[in-house]
Write a structure and sequence with these properties.
The protein is α/β, with parallel strands linked by helices. It has one domain (16-165): Glutaredoxin, CATH 3.40.30. Helices cover 27% and strands 21% of the residues. It has helices spanning 47-65, 78-87, 101-106, 157-170, and strands at residues 16-18, 24-26, 35-40, 68-73, 94-96, 111-113, 127-129, 132-136, 142-147. The strands form 3 sheets. It has a 5-stranded mixed β-sheet with strand order 5-4-3-8-9. A two-stranded antiparallel ribbon has the order 1-2. It has a two-stranded antiparallel sheet with strand order 6-7. The longest helix is centred in the first third of the chain and has 19 residues, at 47-65. The two termini are 24 Å apart.
């Protein structure tokens, strides 16, 4: 089965997941004033994910200033999600877990099979999703999306902050929305 791409300006799939600390994140239940930023990461086994999420944690005050609420999500279980939150010293970043692989696929994420222990000695889950970054408007439609087949060369959060500033200042529309005949 192929991965489906989401369409800008159209509704994104539902997302209702538990958070480290006991709450839940339900996309659209309490939309942010500007955008929701949903960052899908591979899981505790991924050292690149930890570094990436540390940078996101560092920049959380900048996203909050812009009216952007942020969640990082994986298919890890509660114990592994807590370990990742501890590893990245998450104080502002909400860490969600138990993303179903069916939901990951609905979001257009690629799915990988385990290759055993990673370079940091943590077992990969049997199946897990690859990274994706999505910016969602308060009305639940896709503004920006990026999916990857690898953990490398992800969108940089500092660049996304600049893009958000530009989009808000210029009322720039979501692009890539055309789905008609070619």
């Amino acid at each position: 089965m192929s991965t489906l791409a989401l369409t800008p300006r159209q509704p994104v799939p539902a997302l209702n997941i538990p958070l480290v600390g006991g709450d839940r994140y339900v996309l659209g239940a309490a939309p942010a004033p500007t955008f929701d930023l949903v960052v899908f990461y591979r899981g505790l086994h991924c050292p690149i994910c930890a570094k990436y999420l540390m940078e996101l944690e560092r920049l959380m005050p900048e996203f909050e200033k812009r009216g952007v609420q942020v969640v990082a999500v994986s298919s890890d279980n509660a114990e592994r999600a807590q370990a990742m939150a501890d590893k990245i010293k998450a104080e502002h970043l909400r860490v969600g877990y138990e993303l179903s692989l069916q939901s990951a696929r609905q979001w257009g994420l690629y799915i990988s099979a385990s290759r055993g222990l990673t370079s940091i000695g943590i077992e990969e889950p049997a199946l897990f999703s690859e990274p994706g970054v999505f910016i969602v408007r308060p009305d639940g439609t896709l503004y920006y999306g990026s999916t990857q087949t690898m953990p490398f060369a992800r969108p940089q959060f500092q660049d996304l902050l600049g893009a958000i500033d530009f989009a808000v200042a210029k009322d720039y529309p979501a692009r890539g929305e055309y789905t008609g005949a070619l």
